[in-house]
Write a structure and sequence with these properties.
Blueprint (H helix, E strand, L loop, with lengths): L1 H5 L10 H20 L2 H22 L6 H8 L8 H15 L9 H12 L15 E4 L2 E5 L6 H14 L4 H15 L6 H16 L8 H7 L1 H14 L3 H18 L9 H9 L4 E2 H8 L4 H14 L3 E3 L11 E4 L1 H10 L3
Antiparallel strand pairs: 1-2, 3-5, 4-5
Helix pairs in contact: 2-12, 3-5, 3-10, 3-16, 5-6, 7-8, 8-9, 8-12, 11-12, 13-15
């Protein structure tokens, strides 16, 4: 019996060359990001990315609210949407507000986070499940989670491992995320909790991870996310899931890097700041106080389009008299980093 108490649970995973290379590449990209980010810019970007993170995590669970609606809820405005979806967003905003106060290895913090995340949505918010649960893909059960009476023991083992492991946080956070989804400790909300906890473990390693929206990328690669979980379960080795998560993280940190700045001229910057919603050429020219149409097109419009900072509303008819222009995500991100206020 004594030997059993001393042994520490070790989740099965293999460190492949692919995983090692990705850890190195992410560490390098994060180092560059840390150098490039000034505090005022970071705060503006933080809000944009927090909204993208919440949008991505809830969209994976079928929540249809847009980033604009999530922003409106954050600002306390009324949003016409199914009450459950609004509640999910409010809960997620409240949970991410508490992000900095939780310790990744504290089980009580995980239960508290789940209570906030699922408040008003399920009866067992903040409690491990009392019944059996299967993970579905459509009408097919792709994973039968362990019986409910084993959950507290399995979670205690997992937290014990997390507190003791010397694995790199990029690997440890992915292993934890996979094991967490395998155990499926809650009646509902397991996906969003697993993603939140991986971000939390990573943020302890580097604070930038508190606001790097890995969730939005997982949302774009949802089928692969579930496939990586399934493959790891079949192999009894979470390497496929670790490799998938590291690819998502690497893609996110390389696209979050403020690469946009050098090519933006003062004229293009003025144009981006002047665009509100969708605007036609004349409206834009007058907003900028410009009378020369040719100069406006060559010095403002064309470079902004070429850099992908704005887009046409009717791209297949560039010369349409109904043509309007609007900011792209890249343009919004540039404004969040460089705009005033």
């Amino acid at each position: 019996m004594n030997g059993e108490i001393l042994s520490v649970y070790e989740p099965p995973y293999t460190i492949t060359p692919e995983i090692l290379n990705r850890v190195a590449a992410i560490s390098e990209a994060i180092g560059r990001l840390t150098v490039l980010t000034d505090p005022a810019r970071a705060l503006r970007l933080q809000r944009v990315n927090r909204i993208r993170t919440i949008h991505g995590s809830l969209a994976i669970e079928g929540n249809a609210l847009s980033e604009a609606q999530i922003t409106a809820i954050l600002e306390g405005k009324r949003v016409i949407a199914p009450p459950r979806e609004v509640q999910e967003v409010k809960n997620a905003l409240a949970a991410y507000d508490r992000f900095d106060t939780w310790k990744p290895e504290a089980e009580k913090d995980l239960l508290e986070a789940h209570r906030i995340m699922m408040s008003g949505l399920i009866d067992e918010a903040g409690l491990y499940r009392h019944g059996g649960v299967g993970v579905m893909a459509g009408s097919q059960v792709i994973h039968m989670a362990p019986p409910a009476d084993r959950v507290p023991h399995l979670m205690a083992d997992l937290f014990g491992w997390l507190a003791a492991t010397d694995a790199h946080p990029l690997i440890a956070s992915s292993v934890f995320h996979y094991e967490f989804e395998f155990i499926h400790p809650f009646a509902d909300g397991n996906g969003r909790m697993g993603r939140l906890w991986q971000s939390l473990i990573l943020a302890r390693w580097n604070p930038l991870f508190a606001d790097i929206p890995v969730e939005s990328l997982i949302f774009e690669h949802q089928a692969e996310y579930y496939q990586a979980i399934q493959e790891s379960t079949q192999k009894t080795d979470s390497a496929p899931f670790i490799a998938f998560m590291l690819r998502m993280i690497l893609d996110t940190v390389t696209t979050t890097a403020p690469q946009v700045s050098p090519q933006v001229t003062p004229q293009v910057g003025e144009l981006l700041a002047a665009i509100g919603g969708e605007m036609g050429r004349e409206a834009l020219q007058s907003a900028l106080g410009l009378s020369d149409r040719k100069s406006f097109r060559e010095r403002y419009l064309k470079p902004a389009l070429a850099e992908g900072l704005i887009e046409m509303t009717i791209p297949d008819k560039p010369n349409s008299r109904l043509q309007k222009y609007r900011l792209t995500d890249k343009g919004r991100q540039w404004l969040a980093q460089h705009g005033d206020g």
